[in-house]
Amino acid sequence: MKPKQITADVHGMTTQQAKRHLEQLLRTLPDQVEQITVVHGFHRGDALQQMVRGKGLSSKRIKQKILSINPGETILLLSPKPKKNG
Predict the structure, then answer these.
(1) SS3 helix, strand, coil % of the chain, rounded to 5?
(2) In DSSP terms, which residues pair with 5 in a beta bridge?
């Protein structure tokens, strides 16, 4: 069975807008989503690319960041949401 994946396009956003958008997406995604392809572009600068690929974007759900052949995309492999106690 193919993993459920989505695409998040953050073209045209500031670094802060993209970070907030992706962090909210990571918090609210169902466990069934195992992969996000983040389209950040790179022709107009690499600030978004560096934020996504570097330490600017972090979440307990991100298991691995894969650098795509396309330099304008980064693939995030996800773990299930951490279980809440209680």
Answers:
(1) 25, 30, 45
(2) 35
Domain boundaries, the chain: 4-78
pTM (2 d.p.): 0.88
DSSP classification of residue 14: -
Architecture per CATH, 4-78 = 2-Layer Sandwich (3.30)
Residue pair 34/63 in contact (Cβ under 8 Å)? The answer is no
Reading the block at residue 20, the tokens are: 């907030």
Question: Over the Cα atoms of the chain, what is R_g?
Answer: 13
Q: Which residues pair with 64 in a beta bridge?
A: 77
Residue for token pair 């934020």? 51
pLDDT by residue (tens digit) across 20-59? Answer: 999 999 999 998 999 999 999 988 789 999 999 999 998 9
Q: Nearest to residue 33, comparing CAs of 63, 9, 4?
A: 4
